[in-house]
Design a protein that fits this description.
single chain, alpha/beta, 6-stranded mixed sheet, 6 strands, 16% strand
């Protein structure tokens, strides 16, 4: 399985749980670490996240992006494209993400502020097909913590 891993609290909790589950089944646990390259020190942050992933029993895969412009939306898209590529290369059928209930609420508010209609206001589900085509074809995005508040 592939875990999108930033090194933050949500993704660390998810990676720990996923690696524990993977070890019981003999499956590999991969941590996809994306260095957006948007600020000084991002490579060091990615290396630190990779070290944490290793300490939890995961095999880290770092992808460094370059030339990103256009803010958070483009960074999110580029991150998902990179995670889909890692998953495809590793043969992982799903990418697990540490999104919490708080993230879902934030997504709805951002979409509302952007003028989204009812379809656009639908928040991310617990498991969805990747919205990317063709990069995400056949890939699922799972959010096992999507019904938990961040504090949990």
């Amino acid at each position: 399985m592939l875990i999108g891993f930033s090194g933050g609290g949500d993704s660390t909790a998810l990676l720990q749980a996923a690696c524990e589950a993977a070890s019981k089944t003999g499956k590999a646990c991969l941590a996809g670490v994306i260095d957006h390259g948007l600020r000084d020190g991002s490579a060091a942050d990615a290396a630190t996240a990779a070290a944490v992933a290793r300490s939890l029993g995961a095999e880290p895969v770092i992808v460094t992006l370059s030339g990103l412009a256009g803010g958070q939306a483009n960074a999110r898209l580029a991150r998902h494209v990179a995670l889909c590529a890692i998953a495809r290369q590793a043969g992982a059928g799903a990418i697990l993400l540490g999104h919490t209930e708080d993230d879902l609420a934030e997504t709805v508010l951002m979409r509302l502020a952007g003028g989204a209609g009812p379809r656009g206001l639908a928040a991310m589900g617990g498991v969805d097909w990747s919205p990317l085509w063709p990069q995400g074809r056949g890939q699922r995005a799972g959010r096992p913590f999507s019904r938990l508040p961040r504090e949990a």
